[in-house]
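Weekly sync, protein design subgroup
Attendees: M.S., D.O., the rotation student, P.L. (late)

Item 1: inverse folding check
M.S. brought a backbone from last month's batch and wanted to see whether the design step gives back something sensible before we order anything. D.O. pointed out we never logged the input encoding, so this time it goes straight into the notes. Structure tokens as presented (444 positions):
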């Protein structure tokens, strides 16, 4: 404060020297007014040319700022080295305590060096380079945006570096996405049935409405069940962690989750039964004595997991153990059949979608001479259903597929369980947003 308010205060010489800038007689990325000239923090380092007739008050202010930053980061680097050395020397301590210390260490390192890049470097360029007569006035455009990103990334760094914080953030983010999904899909329904352009879209609007209603139902069920898919050894399990957390609840969620498949394929003239996924999850992936025995260490908390489990709720999880012994040894056909059924359903769905998408694209190219308004509408609808088909492939089917199918080959990425619920609940939100932004009539 002292440096900026007193050492960098304006005086007659600085105001005279900067008059062309404030009068608008020289190019600048910022618009200035001569009346506000005295309200700027300003430093003129030399009364004449560079290194000629120094202005010590302003140079002292710049030197003070430079020394403060240098001392700060010297202390940070020394302490970081000492902490790193301590963590290496005490590796035999409680793994949980050591893990927490490492997470906190990473977070403070990132919190120390991110502002060095985003804030101190651009401000330093503006403050110190003029001492040597060097000017990069375009830095003024980026500087405010970079500086304001500092507090945002401070919080994000702590959330993503500390595992427990990240899990809490994931749950909070899901609640926000759930609320947005309900609002946006409700807006879409209102647009579909009250828009002045609804006659141009015709009866297709009912299919759009069915998608919005399906997404509203899915969002509500997801919130009530809060499903988290997990992997352990060559096993897959999925359970509810919300209000309705029984195995029946998780199976109903899977049935509702799969209802988007027939609606989606209906856009490409295809229909399937949504009861299929419920059957796979509730009957083919039901727990038995062997799966419960194999997963006992996970439910007892004897192995690391991103989800907290209780042994009493073990039987309420959808779970699949693919091999009774090692991978590819003594297969458990009921669970493998369930995984194969889910895989085939998705494969057939997307095969039909791709074939129909190619046929639609070919038709639109061959009938380019049709009414431009009609053709434009068809292209908008085509773009929207393509996006609606492939967004869930990335956000929903891929992370769930990783949890369900990779354990068949003995591969485990348990951290996927943290991201999966948030990605899945984003599906109905983006369904509605895709339609609103792809359809010109709906945007306005």
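Designed sequence read out in the meeting:
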């Amino acid at each position: 404060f002292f440096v900026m308010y007193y050492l960098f205060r304006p005086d007659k010489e600085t105001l005279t020297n900067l008059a062309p800038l404030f009068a608008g007689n020289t190019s600048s990325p910022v618009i200035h007014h001569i009346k506000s000239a005295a309200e700027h923090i300003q430093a003129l380092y030399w009364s004449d040319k560079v290194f000629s007739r120094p202005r010590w008050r302003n140079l002292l202010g710049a030197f003070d700022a430079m020394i403060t930053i240098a001392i700060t980061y010297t202390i940070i680097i020394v302490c970081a080295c000492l902490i790193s050395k301590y963590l290496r020397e005490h590796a035999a301590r409680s793994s949980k305590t050591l893990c927490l210390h490492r997470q906190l260490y990473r977070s403070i390192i990132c919190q120390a060096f991110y502002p060095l890049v985003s804030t101190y470097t651009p401000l330093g360029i503006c403050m110190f380079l003029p001492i040597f007569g060097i000017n990069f006035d375009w830095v003024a455009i980026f500087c405010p945006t970079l500086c304001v990103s500092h507090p945002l990334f401070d919080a994000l760094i702590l959330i993503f570096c500390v595992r427990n914080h990240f899990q809490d953030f994931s749950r909070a983010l899901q609640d926000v996405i759930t609320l947005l999904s309900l609002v946006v899909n409700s807006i879409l329904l209102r647009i579909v049935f009250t828009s002045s352009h609804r006659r141009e879209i015709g009866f297709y609007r009912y299919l759009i409405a069915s998608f919005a209603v399906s997404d509203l139902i899915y969002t509500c069920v997801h919130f009530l069940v809060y499903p988290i898919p997990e992997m352990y050894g060559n096993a897959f399990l999925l359970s509810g962690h919300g209000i309705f957390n029984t195995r029946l609840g998780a199976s109903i969620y899977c049935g509702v989750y799969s209802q988007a498949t027939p609606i989606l394929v209906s856009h490409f003239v295809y229909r399937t039964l949504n009861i299929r996924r419920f059957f796979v999850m509730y009957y083919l992936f039901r727990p038995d004595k062997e799966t419960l025995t194999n997963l006992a260490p996970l439910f007892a908390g004897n192995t690391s997991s991103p989800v907290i489990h209780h042994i009493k709720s073990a039987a309420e999880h959808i779970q699949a153990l693919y091999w009774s012994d090692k991978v590819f040894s003594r297969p458990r056909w009921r669970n493998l059949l369930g995984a194969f059924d889910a895989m085939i359903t998705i494969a057939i769905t997307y095969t039909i979608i791709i074939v129909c998408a190619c046929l639609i694209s070919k038709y639109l190219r061959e009938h380019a001479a049709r009414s431009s308004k009609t053709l434009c509408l068809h292209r908008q609808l085509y773009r929207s259903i393509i996006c609606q088909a492939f967004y869930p492939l990335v956000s929903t089917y891929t992370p769930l597929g990783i949890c369900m199918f990779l354990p068949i080959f003995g591969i485990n990425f348990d951290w996927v369980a943290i991201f999966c619920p948030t990605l899945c609940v984003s599906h109905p939100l983006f369904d509605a947003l895709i339609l609103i932004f792809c359809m010109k009539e709906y945007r306005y």
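Discussion: Residues 267-276 have pLDDT under 50 and may be disordered. The chain has 17 helices and three strands.
Action: P.L. to compare against the previous round before Friday.
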